[in-house]
Structure prediction request, 295 residues.
Amino acid sequence: MAGATSLHAAADPAVRFESRSATREAPWVKWTLIAVSLAFFALFLLLPLIAVFVEALRKGWDAYIAALVEPDALSAIRLTLLAAAISVPLNLSFGVAAAWAIAKFDFRGKHLLITLIDLPFSVSPVVAGLIYVLVFGAQGWFGPWLQAHDLKVIFAVPGIVLATVFVTFPFIARELIPLMQAQGKEEEEAAVVLGANGWQTFRYVTLPNIKWGLLYGVILCNARAMGEFGAVSVVSGHIRGLTNTLPLHVEILYNEYQFAAAFAVASLLALLALVTLAVKTWIEHQATQSGDASQ
Prediction:
């Protein structure tokens, strides 16, 4: 009788729908939540994004291209790419090493290391920039020594790179730590028992398991490195053609009432965000397919 009852319940569409339903709210509640979410997305995300491209093209394609190939704009693009090209590999090395140490080993100071990784999330980027000025500025701790050896950190490329590294270094580590903790360390231990050394264990066991999370962290880190404003603004000195990144160049153009040029340069950052979103979606799709195939 119990078996017949359960079979009847499984055959009943209402019972199957109820078992799949997360709540028992009326349908209008679901559609209201969807409408509110879409309205919020359209008002605060989609509309500003459209406005950027509309303003950028307001004076036509010739003015748009001219704003992008102007010497100061090209210099800002090169400096932005340079800062990202240096900071992302550094954060990649640190993130993988920190995540592996935290997820695979127990050691004294482990919680302190996790706290330090989260530090840039809790400290304002402007404060981070001021810290570098205090340490490497002309009146800072190492300022006299740097001047004596004709080395320049603040208001130069090294300061911009340091500020970018500081604000971006949690992204890769924070993406990998929970992933590696969830995977455990049984596979690595088995590889060691079979005679693999540390590099072989990482290359053939750890890396294939974390490759999608690693790529996702690198994409986010690169996007933040190219779009950072606060910390870089403090240490750059705003020297046109020398120490201005793309966000700083946009600010200068806007303050000079060159609105079309400012929005044209800003559209590059918006395109970066869209590309990042597309790559993120692709990575999540590939990771889902990989997980389904492994099962």
Observations:
- Residues 10 and 148 are 82 Å apart (CA to CA).
- Confidence is low (pLDDT under 50) at residues 1-11, 14-19.
